[in-house]
């Protein structure tokens, strides 16, 4: 499969940023083109193997959620309709359509806003040692994958590609963003998580945890980047959910588990994914897309 990123070099726009998955290009002083590639990352490394159609699937899931939540919380989208893209981009329809959106330029807040409703991942590891997650004290005796009595907010730093994001306490977040912004982001993250979780549960999906990113659009804080995708969330099927063990998830955890199983040391060189792992990952992303957007 041709690497989308290599073909994007022909786009006649100034590149602003290259992330783990997304490429940003400047359109004008107020807007950007955001392209979601087929790259996949794990443990803060971009893997050398692409997942076919992943960018299109992620883009469509984000668009679904942005639309579902648009009257509940504002976001950065200007348009996802390729017919409304600038004429200069029309020759690149085959590259851009379905995986690109035009978004507002904002002042990005350098925090990943994580909402957790269940004990899993790094949160479970910390809980086993300290009965806390990022400074949030939890009841003793909880088991792996168990529902937390009340969803909690656990921020982390937003680092550059290749640098590990660091879980921080809410007090540390206040030192970075200020008290008012921190309180606002905490409430917004938990409110959005609860609303999305209610919808997903009706579809048979548990959102164990998810992360949001926000930015300042003038004086207003809005949602940016992606939202509630299998790259940024843990999705479990409620029909197979069992407390006390790890869950079979419909998200990027499948890749992490595979890399752990082959004893990768999480250093260069990054392993190439086997064809069956690539196809299974694609199937999981398509499955959660179909369930959520049906």
Structural features, described:
The protein is of the alpha+beta class and 294 residues long. It has two domains: 8-105, Phosphorylase Kinase, domain 1, CATH 3.30.200.20; 108-253, D-amino Acid Aminotransferase, Chain A, domain 1, CATH 3.30.470. It has eight helices and 16 strands. It has helices spanning 4-8, 54-69, 93-96, 121-130, 170-177, 179-202, 253-261, 275-293; strands at residues 14-18, 22-26, 31-36, 41-42, 45-46, 77-79, 100-104, 107-108, 111-118, 132-133, 136-137, 147-153, 156-157, 205-217, 220-224, 233-237. Strands 8, 9, 12, 13, 14, 15 and 16 form a seven-stranded antiparallel beta sheet that branches. A five-stranded antiparallel beta sheet has the order 1-2-3-7-6. Helix 2 (54-69) runs parallel beside helix 8 and helix 5 (170-177) crosses helix 6 (179-202). The radius of gyration is 19 Å and the shape is globular. It starts with a helix and ends with a helix.
CATH superfamily of the largest domain: ATP-grasp fold, B domain
Number of helices: 8
CATH architecture of the largest domain: 2-Layer Sandwich
How many β-strand stretches?
16
User: What is the highest CATH level, the class of the largest domain?
Assistant: Alpha Beta
Tell me the series of helices and strands, N- to C-terminal: HEEEEEHEHEEEHEEEEHHEEEHH
Report the end-to-end length measured between terminal Cα atoms: 28 Å
Sum up the overall morphology in one term: globular
| Low-pLDDT regions | none
* Mean pLDDT rating: 95
Which strand-content bin applies to the residues?
25-35%
Report the structural category: alpha+beta
